[in-house]
Amino acid sequence: MGIGLFLTSTLSFAEEDILTGDTRLSCEAILCLSSGDKPSECAPSLKRYFGIHKKKMSDTIKARKDFLSICPSSKEEGMPSLISAISKGAGRCDADELNRVNRKLVKVPNPEYQQCVSGKKGYRTQPCASIPSVISKYIIQNARPSYCTAYFNHGWTYNVDSVKYVGDPYNGGKWVNQ
Predict the structure, then answer these.
(1) Distance between CA atoms of residues 58 and 53, nearest Å
(2) pLDDT value of position 118
(3) CA-based end-to-end distance of the chain
(4) Which of 21, 27, 50, 119 lies 20 to 30 Å from 174, alpha-carbon distance?
């Protein structure tokens, strides 16, 4: 009879400790976003996390951070920096997003071109001259934003760095998913 009473009280205690709702989704999201491997069990928490959108990106990041902070362990040692890294980096450090945010307009030398002067009837009045010029062109920078570096290099994330830069910025270089 004593064992039955113990099991009943243990089950009741365990049921009270089970997380539910946003608290559960918040803790699951932290676990799922700390790893590059995302099992199907992550789908509900990631849907909830990435479903948080505000008009400004800074407000979206704050709201996502607030959501992750619902998890009871969010105040434990090391967790605030992990939550900060996740809220700023997760979903913003894949190849498509890095190619978008790292796009920059730069001035680059244009291969020399010929400039020819023509007379009244279209005949050249002098030899053509090579003239160096500069053109503007978009490149994709090969440096990661600081928030991606913080997310990828956090001591509690595992295998989340799934992008690399290939090529040269001035000759079509870009970020690709590995």
Answers:
(1) 10
(2) 67
(3) 59
(4) 50
CA distances 66 to 39, 75, 86, 149, Å, are 24, 12, 12, 21
Question: Does the pLDDT of residue 41 top 90, yes or no?
Answer: yes
Query: Kindly report the CA angle at 156 between 151 and 160, in degrees rounded to 5?
Result: 50
Q: How many Cβ atoms are within 10 Å of 83's Cβ, its own excluded?
A: 25
CA distance 83 to 106: 35
- pLDDT above 90: residue 59: yes
- 108 closest CA partner among 167, 166, 169: 169
**What residue spans of the chain are helical by DSSP H?**
2-17, 21-33, 43-50, 57-68, 79-89, 95-101, 146-153
Q: Between these two residues, 95 and 111, which has the higher pLDDT value?
A: 95
Assess contact for 20 and 48: CB atoms under 8 A.
Answer: no
At residue 107, does pLDDT exceed 70?
yes
Q: Are 150 and 164 in contact (CB under 8 A)?
A: no
Which residue, 25, 19, 61, 64, is CA-closest to 42? Answer: 25
